[in-house]
């Protein structure tokens, strides 16, 4: 990530700092991305004074944050509810994302409901998508606490409704996006089949997809026993090859089934993990822990100290770049890399007391606390949707 971050920083500084304005209001960009434009990793927003690199910037302390309290949110899974499960520090809640040369509009839950009246927003993917889905529910309900709400929880589909506005926020669990069939007890990951899942997505007005983490899982953590591709069954495949095949099936489905005059499609970039302190602690600093446990502040600056550009994102970029439908990449990867402090660590309702006592082995450095980082993902999502 460091090499990518350094290169991007140089590019953005040349583009942005050439303008003397230090801030600007983001003007409407909507979805005017050509096929070549939506290949760009970090879309540029034209503002009234300058060019805003929405996903390049720094984290700044802001005492007006968080935008809601965990106790007031109607839905936070135990694994994300760090304050409820004993996290002793709260400074990680006090950071706001500051893009280069512009200001993000503050999230307005009532505006979201008014603009999306009568519509459905659906998150599709793995638990990172669920993390973002629950964050959006928290943000909106904090702004409209008197609104009647209804939740229908299920697997793979859960729906949260704001009844007074006829707005539905849905989460559809599909960690690989493509279908998994069970045949005589054998779970088969079908890289060229997405029909079962896709049927549930067709009527959404806004779709936010994500995938990534489950493609690298091995052993008992993977959700399949065999992989099927082109009529051949495999015990395993190169995971990047499998990811690309699955993503191209998804891309073909979007190109052939989604009405661009009605539905907007987003793809959440890869959410990073923080299991290796050597990535952010350079020099001779002694590392007291083996992961994100005990981290209470973001990485300073605009780039992650070490690491490489995720190979999975190269696959995502290539696949989306070949699509006809203008999919928007919500590029949360770099800004999330800087938030080593934002994970549940041992403050997760999914951990036993024995696991909490052994953070080196048990800390969750993949998911994110709520309130927390996914609220910024949704602030960016809100900005792209409405400005």
TrEMBL record:
Keywords: Membrane, Signal, Signal-anchor, Transmembrane, Transmembrane helix. InterPro entries: TBL, TBL_C, TBL_N. Residues 1-23 form the signal peptide. One of its GO terms (cellular component) is membrane. It comes from the Eukaryota. PANTHER family: PROTEIN PMR5, PROTEIN TRICHOME BIREFRINGENCE-LIKE 9-RELATED. This is Trichome birefringence-like N-terminal domain-containing protein. The lineage of its organism: Eukaryota, Viridiplantae, Streptophyta, Embryophyta, Tracheophyta.
């Amino acid at each position: 990530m460091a090499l990518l971050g350094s290169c991007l920083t140089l590019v953005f500084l040349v583009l942005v700092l050439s303008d003397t304005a230090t801030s600007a209001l983001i003007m409407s960009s909507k979805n005017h991305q050509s096929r070549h434009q939506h290949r760009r990793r970090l879309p540029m927003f034209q503002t009234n004074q300058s060019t805003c690199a929405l996903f390049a910037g720094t984290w700044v302390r802001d005492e007006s944050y968080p935008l809601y309290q965990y106790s007031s949110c109607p839905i936070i899974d135990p694994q994300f509810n760090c304050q409820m499960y004993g996290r002793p520090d709260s400074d990680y809640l006090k950071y706001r994302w500051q893009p280069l040369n512009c200001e993000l509009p503050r999230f307005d839950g009532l505006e979201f409901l008014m603009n999306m009246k009568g519509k459905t927003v659906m998150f599709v993917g793995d638990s990172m998508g669920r993390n973002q889905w629950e964050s959006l529910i928290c943000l909106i309900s904090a702004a409209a606490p008197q609104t009647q709400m209804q939740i229908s929880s299920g697997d793979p589909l859960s729906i949260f409704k704001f009844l007074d506005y006829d707005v539905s926020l849905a989460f559809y669990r599909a960690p690989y996006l493509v279908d998994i069939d069970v045949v005589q007890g054998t779970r088969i990951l079908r890289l060229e089949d997405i029909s079962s899942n896709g049927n549930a997505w067709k009527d959404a007005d806004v779709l936010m997809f994500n995938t990534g983490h489950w493609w690298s899982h091995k052993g008992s953590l993977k959700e399949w026993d065999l992989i099927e591709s082109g009529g051949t069954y495999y015990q395993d495949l190169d995971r990047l090859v499998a990811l690309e095949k699955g993503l191209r099936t998804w891309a073909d489905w979007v190109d052939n089934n989604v009405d661009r005059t009605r539905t907007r499609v987003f793809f959440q970039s890869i959410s990073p993990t923080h299991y290796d302190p050597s990535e952010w602690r350079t020099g001779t600093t002694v590392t007291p822990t083996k992961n994100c446990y005990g981290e209470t502040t973001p990485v300073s600056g605009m780039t992650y100290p070490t690491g490489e550009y995720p190979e999975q994102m190269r696959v995502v970029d290539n696949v989306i770049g070949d699509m006809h439908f203008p999919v928007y990449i919500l590029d949360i990867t770099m800004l999330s890399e800087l938030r080593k402090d934002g994970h549940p660590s041992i403050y997760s309702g999914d951990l036993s007391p024995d696991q909490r006592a052994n953070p080196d082995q048990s800390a969750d450095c993949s998911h994110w606390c709520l309130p927390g980082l996914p609220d910024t993902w949704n602030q960016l999502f809100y900005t792209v949707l409405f400005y």
